Amino acid sequence: MTVPHRFDEITETLARQSIELPSWAFGNSGTRFKVFGTPGTPRDTHEKIADAAKVHEMTGLAPSVALHIPWDDVEDFTELKAHAENLGVELGTINANTFQDEDYKFGSLTHSDPAIRRKAIDHHFRCIEIMHATGSTDLKIWLADGTNYPGQDSLRARQDRLAASLAEIYERLDAHQRLVLEYKFFEPAFYHTDVPDWGTSYAQVSALGDRALTCLDTGHHAPGTNIEFIVMQLMRLGKLGSFDFNSRFYADDDLIVGAADPFQLFRILYEVIANGGLDEDSPVRFMLDQCHNIEEKIPGQIRSVLNVQEMTARALLVDRAALDKAQAEHDVLGANEVLMDAFQTDVRPALAQWRASRGLPEEPMRAYAESGHQRHLAEQRVGGAQAGWG
Ligand code: LRH
Ligand code: MN
After folding, report:
1. Which ligand sits nearest to residue 22's alpha carbon?
2. Which residues does residue 138 pair with via DSSP β-bridges, in sequence order?
3. Rounded distance, CA 348 to CA 261, Å?
4. Domains of the chain: total
5. Which of 142, 143, 285, when mutated, tests ligand 1's pocket best, judged by the most ligand atoms within 8 Å of its CB?
6. Is residue 223 part of a domain?
7. SUPFAM superfamilies from the entry (predicted)?
8. Which atom of ligand 1 is nearest to the CA of 68?
9. Is-above-0.85 flag for pTM?
10. By CB neighbour count within 10 A (0-12 exposed, 13-18 middle, 19+ buried), where does 76 fall?
11. Does 161 map to a domain?
12. Nearest residue CA, atom 10 of ligand 1?
Protein backbone atom coordinates (compact mmCIF):
# COMPACT_ATOMS: atom_id res chain seq x y z
CA MET A 1 0.00 0.00 0.00
CA THR A 2 1.61 3.23 -1.10
CA VAL A 3 1.13 6.04 1.44
CA PRO A 4 1.20 9.33 -0.49
CA HIS A 5 4.39 11.14 0.41
CA ARG A 6 3.76 13.95 2.81
CA PHE A 7 0.56 12.20 4.14
CA ASP A 8 2.03 12.41 7.62
CA GLU A 9 2.34 16.17 7.13
CA ILE A 10 -1.42 16.60 6.69
CA THR A 11 -2.76 14.47 9.55
CA GLU A 12 -2.59 17.32 12.08
CA THR A 13 -4.96 19.39 9.90
CA LEU A 14 -7.17 16.37 9.20
CA ALA A 15 -7.44 15.74 12.94
CA ARG A 16 -8.87 19.27 13.38
CA GLN A 17 -11.60 18.74 10.75
CA SER A 18 -15.17 18.69 12.08
CA ILE A 19 -18.32 18.49 9.98
CA GLU A 20 -21.64 19.37 11.61
CA LEU A 21 -24.55 17.06 10.83
CA PRO A 22 -28.11 18.26 10.08
CA SER A 23 -30.68 16.68 12.41
CA TRP A 24 -33.17 16.64 9.53
CA ALA A 25 -31.01 14.29 7.45
CA PHE A 26 -31.96 11.50 9.89
CA GLY A 27 -35.70 12.08 9.41
CA ASN A 28 -37.75 11.28 6.32
CA SER A 29 -37.54 13.70 3.42
CA GLY A 30 -38.50 13.65 -0.21
CA THR A 31 -39.98 15.67 -3.01
CA ARG A 32 -43.43 17.04 -3.85
CA PHE A 33 -44.11 13.67 -5.40
CA LYS A 34 -43.41 11.45 -2.42
CA VAL A 35 -41.76 11.30 1.00
CA PHE A 36 -40.78 7.64 1.60
CA GLY A 37 -40.46 6.10 5.05
CA THR A 38 -37.53 3.94 6.23
CA PRO A 39 -37.57 1.32 9.02
CA GLY A 40 -35.72 2.64 12.10
CA THR A 41 -36.15 6.32 11.26
CA PRO A 42 -36.09 8.50 14.41
CA ARG A 43 -39.41 9.60 15.88
CA ASP A 44 -38.06 12.62 17.79
CA THR A 45 -35.12 14.97 18.28
CA HIS A 46 -33.49 12.79 20.93
CA GLU A 47 -33.36 9.85 18.50
CA LYS A 48 -32.03 12.09 15.68
CA ILE A 49 -29.18 13.16 17.99
CA ALA A 50 -28.50 9.51 18.90
CA ASP A 51 -28.12 8.74 15.18
CA ALA A 52 -25.79 11.69 14.67
CA ALA A 53 -23.71 10.46 17.62
CA LYS A 54 -23.43 7.07 15.91
CA VAL A 55 -21.92 8.79 12.83
CA HIS A 56 -19.37 10.53 15.08
CA GLU A 57 -18.59 7.24 16.86
CA MET A 58 -17.85 5.58 13.51
CA THR A 59 -15.84 8.43 11.95
CA GLY A 60 -14.57 10.81 14.66
CA LEU A 61 -15.52 13.59 12.21
CA ALA A 62 -18.94 14.86 13.32
CA PRO A 63 -18.85 16.25 16.91
CA SER A 64 -21.92 18.49 16.57
CA VAL A 65 -25.53 18.43 15.33
CA ALA A 66 -27.45 21.34 13.81
CA LEU A 67 -31.08 21.76 14.85
CA HIS A 68 -34.02 23.14 12.86
CA ILE A 69 -36.82 25.03 14.66
CA PRO A 70 -39.63 24.03 14.98
CA TRP A 71 -38.80 20.55 13.55
CA ASP A 72 -36.53 19.90 16.61
CA ASP A 73 -38.62 21.75 19.19
CA VAL A 74 -38.50 20.18 22.69
CA GLU A 75 -39.79 21.14 26.15
CA ASP A 76 -36.32 21.51 27.66
CA PHE A 77 -33.32 22.45 25.49
CA THR A 78 -31.00 22.32 28.51
CA GLU A 79 -31.97 18.66 28.98
CA LEU A 80 -31.46 18.11 25.22
CA LYS A 81 -27.96 19.60 25.51
CA ALA A 82 -27.15 17.16 28.34
CA HIS A 83 -28.62 14.29 26.27
CA ALA A 84 -26.31 15.19 23.36
CA GLU A 85 -23.25 15.53 25.58
CA ASN A 86 -23.95 12.13 27.18
CA LEU A 87 -23.78 10.73 23.66
CA GLY A 88 -20.49 12.54 22.93
CA VAL A 89 -21.75 15.30 20.65
CA GLU A 90 -22.68 19.00 20.95
CA LEU A 91 -25.68 20.96 19.71
CA GLY A 92 -24.60 23.29 16.90
CA THR A 93 -26.16 25.73 14.46
CA ILE A 94 -29.77 26.70 15.12
CA ASN A 95 -31.71 26.92 11.84
CA ALA A 96 -34.71 29.25 11.76
CA ASN A 97 -37.74 28.30 9.66
CA THR A 98 -40.06 30.87 8.12
CA PHE A 99 -40.95 28.74 5.08
CA GLN A 100 -43.79 26.51 6.30
CA ASP A 101 -46.28 28.90 7.94
CA GLU A 102 -49.42 30.12 6.10
CA ASP A 103 -48.66 33.68 7.20
CA TYR A 104 -45.46 33.67 5.16
CA LYS A 105 -47.21 33.11 1.80
CA PHE A 106 -45.95 36.45 0.49
CA GLY A 107 -42.77 36.60 2.52
CA SER A 108 -41.52 36.69 6.09
CA LEU A 109 -38.73 39.17 6.98
CA THR A 110 -39.51 40.92 3.65
CA HIS A 111 -43.33 40.91 3.98
CA SER A 112 -45.10 44.24 3.37
CA ASP A 113 -47.24 43.73 6.49
CA PRO A 114 -45.35 44.88 9.63
CA ALA A 115 -47.31 42.36 11.74
CA ILE A 116 -46.04 39.46 9.62
CA ARG A 117 -42.47 40.81 9.79
CA ARG A 118 -42.85 41.10 13.56
CA LYS A 119 -43.96 37.45 13.76
CA ALA A 120 -40.96 36.35 11.68
CA ILE A 121 -38.52 38.49 13.71
CA ASP A 122 -39.98 37.08 16.96
CA HIS A 123 -39.37 33.54 15.62
CA HIS A 124 -35.68 34.44 15.21
CA PHE A 125 -35.65 35.96 18.72
CA ARG A 126 -36.93 32.60 20.00
CA CYS A 127 -34.17 30.79 18.08
CA ILE A 128 -31.65 33.06 19.85
CA GLU A 129 -33.21 32.13 23.22
CA ILE A 130 -32.78 28.47 22.27
CA MET A 131 -29.10 29.19 21.41
CA HIS A 132 -28.59 30.40 24.99
CA ALA A 133 -29.89 27.04 26.28
CA THR A 134 -27.99 24.87 23.79
CA GLY A 135 -24.75 26.89 23.90
CA SER A 136 -24.91 27.29 20.11
CA THR A 137 -23.02 30.20 18.51
CA ASP A 138 -24.59 30.26 15.03
CA LEU A 139 -28.09 31.34 14.01
CA LYS A 140 -28.65 30.31 10.39
CA ILE A 141 -31.19 32.22 8.35
CA TRP A 142 -32.43 30.87 5.02
CA LEU A 143 -35.49 32.61 3.55
CA ALA A 144 -37.90 31.14 0.99
CA ASP A 145 -39.00 34.76 0.44
CA GLY A 146 -39.47 35.80 -3.19
CA THR A 147 -42.09 36.21 -5.93
CA ASN A 148 -43.38 34.09 -8.81
CA TYR A 149 -44.35 36.75 -11.35
CA PRO A 150 -42.77 40.03 -12.50
CA GLY A 151 -44.59 42.95 -10.88
CA GLN A 152 -45.87 40.86 -7.97
CA ASP A 153 -43.98 43.08 -5.50
CA SER A 154 -41.29 45.82 -5.32
CA LEU A 155 -37.85 44.18 -5.41
CA ARG A 156 -36.34 47.31 -3.81
CA ALA A 157 -38.90 47.66 -1.02
CA ARG A 158 -38.44 44.00 -0.09
CA GLN A 159 -34.64 44.47 0.19
CA ASP A 160 -35.11 47.49 2.45
CA ARG A 161 -37.60 45.64 4.65
CA LEU A 162 -35.21 42.66 4.82
CA ALA A 163 -32.34 44.93 5.93
CA ALA A 164 -34.46 46.42 8.74
CA SER A 165 -35.66 42.99 9.91
CA LEU A 166 -32.11 41.56 9.93
CA ALA A 167 -30.86 44.59 11.87
CA GLU A 168 -33.38 43.89 14.66
CA ILE A 169 -32.32 40.22 14.79
CA TYR A 170 -28.60 41.07 14.76
CA GLU A 171 -29.12 43.47 17.67
CA ARG A 172 -30.53 40.62 19.75
CA LEU A 173 -27.40 38.43 19.36
CA ASP A 174 -24.88 38.55 22.20
CA ALA A 175 -21.15 38.96 21.83
CA HIS A 176 -20.29 35.32 21.14
CA GLN A 177 -23.17 34.66 18.79
CA ARG A 178 -23.17 35.03 14.98
CA LEU A 179 -25.79 34.95 12.28
CA VAL A 180 -25.14 33.37 8.90
CA LEU A 181 -27.39 34.36 5.96
CA GLU A 182 -27.81 31.59 3.38
CA TYR A 183 -28.53 32.43 -0.26
CA LYS A 184 -30.27 30.35 -2.94
CA PHE A 185 -30.95 31.34 -6.54
CA PHE A 186 -34.50 29.92 -6.77
CA GLU A 187 -37.17 27.59 -5.17
CA PRO A 188 -39.70 27.77 -3.78
CA ALA A 189 -39.96 31.17 -5.50
CA PHE A 190 -39.70 30.96 -9.26
CA TYR A 191 -39.35 34.61 -10.49
CA HIS A 192 -37.08 36.24 -7.88
CA THR A 193 -35.67 35.21 -4.51
CA ASP A 194 -34.84 37.96 -2.01
CA VAL A 195 -31.45 36.45 -1.08
CA PRO A 196 -30.54 34.79 -4.43
CA ASP A 197 -26.76 35.03 -4.55
CA TRP A 198 -23.56 35.61 -2.59
CA GLY A 199 -23.53 39.28 -3.53
CA THR A 200 -26.92 39.94 -1.94
CA SER A 201 -26.07 37.95 1.18
CA TYR A 202 -22.72 39.80 1.39
CA ALA A 203 -24.41 43.20 0.97
CA GLN A 204 -27.02 42.46 3.64
CA VAL A 205 -24.61 40.99 6.24
CA SER A 206 -21.98 43.68 5.63
CA ALA A 207 -24.56 46.27 6.66
CA LEU A 208 -25.08 44.46 9.99
CA GLY A 209 -21.63 43.97 11.53
CA ASP A 210 -18.67 41.64 12.10
CA ARG A 211 -20.75 38.76 13.52
CA ALA A 212 -22.97 38.60 10.44
CA LEU A 213 -21.60 36.32 7.74
CA THR A 214 -22.74 34.39 4.70
CA CYS A 215 -23.64 30.68 4.41
CA LEU A 216 -22.73 28.95 1.15
CA ASP A 217 -24.91 25.96 0.29
CA THR A 218 -23.20 24.09 -2.56
CA GLY A 219 -26.59 23.24 -4.10
CA HIS A 220 -27.82 26.83 -4.33
CA HIS A 221 -26.06 28.12 -7.45
CA ALA A 222 -27.06 28.29 -11.09
CA PRO A 223 -25.66 25.40 -13.15
CA GLY A 224 -22.12 26.15 -14.33
CA THR A 225 -21.33 28.54 -11.46
CA ASN A 226 -17.65 28.47 -10.39
CA ILE A 227 -18.44 27.94 -6.70
CA GLU A 228 -14.79 27.78 -5.60
CA PHE A 229 -14.30 31.31 -6.95
CA ILE A 230 -17.12 32.49 -4.66
CA VAL A 231 -15.49 30.60 -1.77
CA MET A 232 -12.20 32.44 -2.42
CA GLN A 233 -13.88 35.83 -2.71
CA LEU A 234 -16.03 35.49 0.44
CA MET A 235 -13.01 34.28 2.41
CA ARG A 236 -10.89 37.13 0.95
CA LEU A 237 -13.61 39.51 2.20
CA GLY A 238 -13.72 37.75 5.61
CA LYS A 239 -17.42 37.06 5.23
CA LEU A 240 -17.69 33.28 4.74
CA GLY A 241 -19.29 31.92 7.91
CA SER A 242 -20.35 28.41 6.97
CA PHE A 243 -20.93 25.79 4.34
CA ASP A 244 -23.99 23.64 3.71
CA PHE A 245 -22.38 20.73 1.87
CA ASN A 246 -24.31 18.52 -0.52
CA SER A 247 -24.24 17.77 -4.24
CA ARG A 248 -26.62 17.95 -7.17
CA PHE A 249 -26.98 17.01 -10.82
CA TYR A 250 -29.70 19.56 -11.64
CA ALA A 251 -31.25 21.82 -8.95
CA ASP A 252 -31.18 21.78 -5.13
CA ASP A 253 -31.07 17.98 -5.11
CA ASP A 254 -29.45 17.81 -1.60
CA LEU A 255 -27.62 14.59 -2.52
CA ILE A 256 -24.57 13.21 -0.72
CA VAL A 257 -21.69 15.70 -0.91
CA GLY A 258 -19.16 14.68 -3.54
CA ALA A 259 -21.53 12.10 -5.05
CA ALA A 260 -22.52 14.12 -8.11
CA ASP A 261 -19.24 15.99 -8.68
CA PRO A 262 -16.23 14.86 -6.57
CA PHE A 263 -13.86 17.07 -8.57
CA GLN A 264 -15.95 20.17 -7.73
CA LEU A 265 -15.76 19.25 -4.04
CA PHE A 266 -11.97 18.89 -4.40
CA ARG A 267 -11.69 22.31 -6.06
CA ILE A 268 -13.87 23.93 -3.35
CA LEU A 269 -11.79 22.37 -0.55
CA TYR A 270 -8.58 23.41 -2.29
CA GLU A 271 -9.72 27.06 -2.14
CA VAL A 272 -10.85 26.60 1.49
CA ILE A 273 -7.35 25.38 2.38
CA ALA A 274 -5.55 27.95 0.22
CA ASN A 275 -7.49 30.75 1.97
CA GLY A 276 -6.94 29.51 5.52
CA GLY A 277 -10.29 27.81 6.06
CA LEU A 278 -8.74 24.84 7.91
CA ASP A 279 -6.37 26.96 9.99
CA GLU A 280 -6.85 26.69 13.76
CA ASP A 281 -8.47 30.12 14.11
CA SER A 282 -10.61 29.86 10.98
CA PRO A 283 -14.14 31.30 11.42
CA VAL A 284 -15.53 28.94 8.76
CA ARG A 285 -17.88 26.15 9.93
CA PHE A 286 -18.60 23.09 7.83
CA MET A 287 -22.06 21.51 7.86
CA LEU A 288 -23.87 18.97 5.75
CA ASP A 289 -27.34 19.89 4.46
CA GLN A 290 -28.69 16.80 2.78
CA CYS A 291 -31.77 14.64 2.36
CA HIS A 292 -31.52 10.85 2.15
CA ASN A 293 -34.82 10.34 0.32
CA ILE A 294 -34.30 6.64 -0.55
CA GLU A 295 -30.97 5.54 1.01
CA GLU A 296 -30.35 4.63 4.65
CA LYS A 297 -29.67 7.82 6.59
CA ILE A 298 -26.91 6.92 9.09
CA PRO A 299 -24.71 5.24 6.43
CA GLY A 300 -25.60 8.13 4.11
CA GLN A 301 -24.16 10.58 6.64
CA ILE A 302 -21.12 8.36 7.25
CA ARG A 303 -20.44 8.25 3.51
CA SER A 304 -20.86 12.04 3.32
CA VAL A 305 -18.34 12.98 6.02
CA LEU A 306 -15.88 10.43 4.58
CA ASN A 307 -16.25 12.05 1.12
CA VAL A 308 -15.38 15.45 2.62
CA GLN A 309 -12.43 13.96 4.53
CA GLU A 310 -11.08 12.18 1.44
CA MET A 311 -11.28 15.27 -0.77
CA THR A 312 -9.78 17.38 2.03
CA ALA A 313 -6.82 14.97 2.25
CA ARG A 314 -6.29 15.12 -1.52
CA ALA A 315 -6.50 18.93 -1.51
CA LEU A 316 -4.00 19.09 1.39
CA LEU A 317 -1.58 16.99 -0.71
CA VAL A 318 -1.34 19.62 -3.45
CA ASP A 319 2.37 20.35 -3.85
CA ARG A 320 2.07 24.11 -3.16
CA ALA A 321 5.74 24.87 -3.92
CA ALA A 322 5.54 23.17 -7.33
CA LEU A 323 2.22 24.92 -8.02
CA ASP A 324 3.50 28.36 -7.07
CA LYS A 325 6.54 27.78 -9.35
CA ALA A 326 4.43 26.62 -12.31
CA GLN A 327 2.02 29.55 -11.85
CA ALA A 328 4.89 32.03 -11.68
CA GLU A 329 6.28 30.61 -14.93
CA HIS A 330 2.83 30.58 -16.60
CA ASP A 331 3.36 26.85 -17.06
CA VAL A 332 -0.35 26.29 -17.71
CA LEU A 333 -0.28 22.52 -18.15
CA GLY A 334 2.33 22.07 -15.43
CA ALA A 335 0.23 23.99 -12.91
CA ASN A 336 -2.91 22.07 -13.81
CA GLU A 337 -0.99 18.78 -13.56
CA VAL A 338 0.12 19.58 -10.00
CA LEU A 339 -3.50 19.98 -8.94
CA MET A 340 -4.67 16.92 -10.89
CA ASP A 341 -1.92 14.78 -9.36
CA ALA A 342 -3.31 15.54 -5.90
CA PHE A 343 -6.90 14.99 -7.05
CA GLN A 344 -6.00 11.61 -8.51
CA THR A 345 -4.07 10.50 -5.41
CA ASP A 346 -5.89 7.58 -3.76
CA VAL A 347 -5.77 8.55 -0.08
CA ARG A 348 -8.21 5.88 1.09
CA PRO A 349 -5.63 3.25 2.26
CA ALA A 350 -3.64 5.89 4.17
CA LEU A 351 -6.81 7.32 5.74
CA ALA A 352 -7.91 3.82 6.78
CA GLN A 353 -4.56 3.20 8.47
CA TRP A 354 -4.67 6.64 10.11
CA ARG A 355 -8.20 6.02 11.46
CA ALA A 356 -7.05 2.73 12.97
CA SER A 357 -4.13 4.55 14.62
CA ARG A 358 -6.76 6.76 16.32
CA GLY A 359 -8.90 3.83 17.49
CA LEU A 360 -11.52 4.36 14.79
CA PRO A 361 -12.82 1.76 12.32
CA GLU A 362 -10.55 1.58 9.26
CA GLU A 363 -13.64 1.28 6.98
CA PRO A 364 -16.52 3.01 8.79
CA MET A 365 -19.10 2.09 6.12
CA ARG A 366 -18.31 -1.62 6.39
CA ALA A 367 -17.97 -1.45 10.18
CA TYR A 368 -21.42 0.14 10.46
CA ALA A 369 -22.99 -2.42 8.09
CA GLU A 370 -21.44 -5.30 10.07
CA SER A 371 -22.47 -3.75 13.44
CA GLY A 372 -26.13 -4.69 12.90
CA HIS A 373 -27.04 -1.30 14.35
CA GLN A 374 -29.47 -0.51 11.51
CA ARG A 375 -31.36 -3.77 12.07
CA HIS A 376 -31.42 -3.04 15.82
CA LEU A 377 -32.97 0.42 15.18
CA ALA A 378 -35.59 -1.06 12.85
CA GLU A 379 -36.58 -3.60 15.52
CA GLN A 380 -36.45 -1.10 18.41
CA ARG A 381 -38.13 1.94 16.82
CA VAL A 382 -41.57 0.54 16.21
CA GLY A 383 -44.66 2.70 16.62
CA GLY A 384 -44.97 6.45 16.83
CA ALA A 385 -44.60 8.77 13.85
CA GLN A 386 -41.32 8.87 11.96
CA ALA A 387 -39.77 12.36 11.98
CA GLY A 388 -39.81 14.49 8.84
CA TRP A 389 -40.08 18.10 7.62
CA GLY A 390 -43.26 18.87 9.43
C1 LRH B 1 -32.96 25.46 1.87
C2 LRH B 1 -31.97 24.77 2.80
C3 LRH B 1 -31.75 25.49 4.11
C4 LRH B 1 -32.45 24.67 5.14
C5 LRH B 1 -33.24 23.70 4.36
C6 LRH B 1 -33.39 22.39 5.08
O7 LRH B 1 -32.99 24.81 0.63
O8 LRH B 1 -30.79 24.55 2.12
O9 LRH B 1 -30.41 25.43 4.49
O10 LRH B 1 -33.14 25.35 6.06
O11 LRH B 1 -32.52 23.52 3.17
MN1 MN C 1 -28.88 24.72 3.08
Report:
1. 1
2. 178
3. 18
4. 1
5. 142
6. yes
7. Xylose isomerase-like (SSF51658)
8. 10
9. yes
10. exposed
11. yes
12. 142
